[in-house]
Amino acid sequence: MASEGTAGNAKWVYAFGDGKAEGKSQMRELLGGKGANLAEMSNLGLPVPPGFTITTEVCTYYYAHDKQYPPELKAQVDEALAKVGALTGRTFGDAESPLLVSVRSGARASMPGMMDTVLNLGLNDATVSALAESAGDPRFAYDSYRRFITMYSNVVLGVEHHAFEEALEHYKERKGVELDTELGAEDWKTLIQTYKKIVRDEHGSDFPQEPQDQLWGAIGAVFDSWMIPRAKKYRELNSIPESWGTAVNVQAMVFGNMGDTSATGVAFTRNPSTGERALYGEFLINAQGEDVVAGIRTPQDITEKARIEAKSDRPSMETAMPESFAELTRIYGILEKHYRDMQDMEFTIESGKLWMLQTRNGKRTAKAALKIAVDLASEGLITQEEAILRVEPGALDQLLHPTIDPKAERKVIASGLPASPGAATGEIVFNSEAAEACRKAERKCILVRIETSPEDIHGMHASEGILTTRGGMTSHAAVVARGMGKPCVSGVGTIRIDYKAQTLSVGGQTLKAGDRITIDGSTGQVLLGEVKMLEPELSGDFAQLMGWADAHRTMKVRANADTSTDARTARNFGAEGIGLCRTEHMFFEGDRIIAVREMILADDAEGRRAALAKILPYQRQDFVELFKIMSGLPVTIRLLDPPLHEFLPHTDAEVQEVVAATGVPEDKIRHRMRELSEFNPMLGFRGCRLAIAFPEIAEMQARAIFEAAVQAAEETGSPVTSEVMVPLVFTRAEFDIVKARIDAMAKAVSEEKNATLAYQVGTMIELPRAALKAGEIAETAEFFSFGTNDLTQTALGISRDDAATFLGPYTQKGILPSDPFVTIDQEGVGELVRIGVERGRKVRSGLKLGICGEHGGDPASIGFCQEVGLDYVSCSPYRVPIARLAAAQAALGKVLGGEG
User: Fold this and answer.
1) What's the domain range around 410?
2) Is Magnesium one of the keywords UniProt gives this record (predicted)?
3) In what order do the strands lie in the sheet with 101-107?
4) Among 161, 435, 582, 762, which is most exposed with the fewest C-beta within 10 angstroms?
5) Which residues are catalytic?
């Protein structure tokens, strides 16, 4: 590794080209993803324009030394530039035979569109004439120069892109033309003078003519773009550390805009939306790469099959450029076999010769990721274990949510490209600020834009789905939406958007901000209003991969479920029992809440028992249903946990309702409300403290559990395994008092029903003292379930409800690696879990251990659970498949929660 200490001999620059390279694909940390893959493609003998990579360590050095470069960097760059010139027969800055280069970022993890690129660097008033002469095409040369001025001025000098766009549009209007391609060399010469004046006016100095100044300006801009807001936001959303930095790739230019035998394009070796094994992508004849991905021109299909499916009347690459198509097909076969994964490739055809500009593992939807992983394993390119590791568990979330019911009436108002699958309904918003406002107000929205840019990243994150009127399947909106797992419809050319009026017009009708639409990212349709959705089908590739995952994981996966609907959903998703049934959720329904309030307002144990007797049949029936749905699988039922004041009325109107329902006088109700109110309810009169003060509550719940177990066993013929969980203990004495009541009730029910009961009594470890005293508690507790939500609150002294105000700065400043309520704090809370596991198992070797906080569905936390030896994780029903896959990956030894 290069460093300041080895400054004299540090290697900061790695060259590639002409069938060899100083780097290779394993050097991603040093060369970034793009640089490592350019080196690898060169080593494979593929046609790659020569160039060099400035390493990520220069980026680190740059920020550590007040934006200064290592002293030996300049000489290494000059040497590498000379090598590129020798391979191309050109010289950088030479007026007769100029070498032109592109300057691109290249982070270790792919960050599409987040950082800056400059093309055609090296052009100036002198070299543009040489380019025109050598190409025999002045129009091409001056078109390239005006593109360079636009891009460089925007990226390096900070001149707004729209200033140049407006000048171009005004010029075309005066000339009476619509398309850029209708402008000739003289037109571009005139516009270049206009563009240079814009730079002078906006930037305060002339556009730089010296190629060396241009080069170092662009290199600095790429390093600077690592810290711009949109890149920071992308890293935050995708857990990419700031310390990684970006590399800079400088490469000889090849031109896709040299006429009808030239083109540029993006291709995937498999369909990134569906996973289908077929070359998939788009290209543009007589264009540069930015034209395809920026969504400014609508591209053409690569294969004839895709062209027919898209009902396009413009020729495919397969028919328009058959030789280049055959060469691309050959190269894609080599790359997929070599990388053993679906590749996302950028290419340029210059005067009939195909050049490869990039390859990387392609971003894909969850559906495609599953299919590709299963297919690659079936094709023998990867093993089943590798297939399991290839699918990001969190991405399964995309498959577990509804799609549009095929029987539903579809009021289709427009159609575009199916850029990212799934369906979403929401109110129309036209900018990212409105999307974020909706999210804060818990309203669902669809972000509607002419085209998205990297600045829209926070709005895309806040919305349910994205709709754009411009751009193709590889546009910014499409790529980012697929990565986020959000539905996206792009290129809906029939829709007209008026940002000022906040309206969307199509087919004679106008919709305004706040009106509801539905988008179907699988068909490309835009529908009026809200449309009925269907639950997902989890068969085929999903079932196949899940089968492999289940065969490899060692931890069980249970669900947190309180209702029969939750329990059925959990079973459908493969849950192996219920790890947490919160009984209080059952108390709020219908007549039950009246009986609960009667119990709380009662003057003595007798009054409480009378009220509890009314709740018993409801509780029993709830448990019967859960036991039957789980058919013999373990069900962990937590005794009443929240403080009693939560069940009392909160408004004057509710107080009057309680008076009417119970006959208790208003002043008595208000007195009890005051008595039970607490300054800090989370640390108040709740959990096992209720069972100790009012044992009749725990007795009623235990009776309901055991009577339900007997009834369910009789009705199904399957034995019932019930686990009764005592919440919020911090000492064995508390647990023993409550356990004695539960055991006594089990004995009573067993005798009354003449039935044998299989049950265990355990506790939730959710207080630091309980973790520290786990050895003592395990002497009588038969299982532990770590309630990591409360354990995080009590260990860190952070209220989950109030943490949002300051956790952002804490993660941004690196004080905490991530939100501790999302991913377990391994050093603190994790240490308490580790202590609880070790001390508990030392006393009771067969102690069953699980986790039932939100962390049970977080892949990074599941990796930790595997490491400390838990028997199971329990999570919300919709996260069960995510947990199953994450548990398999953890068992296979994958380090989760980071990308490396």
Assistant:
1) 403-534
2) yes
3) 20-21, 13-17, 51-54, 246-252, 101-107, 117-121
4) 161
5) 476, 852
